[in-house]
Amino acid sequence: MPFRALLRGTGKKVLALNIAVAAGGGAQYYLTSGFLPTLLSEIVPVGESLRGTILLVCGLAVVVAAIGAGELSERLGEP
Question: Full-prediction pTM beyond 0.70?
Answer without folding.
Answer: no
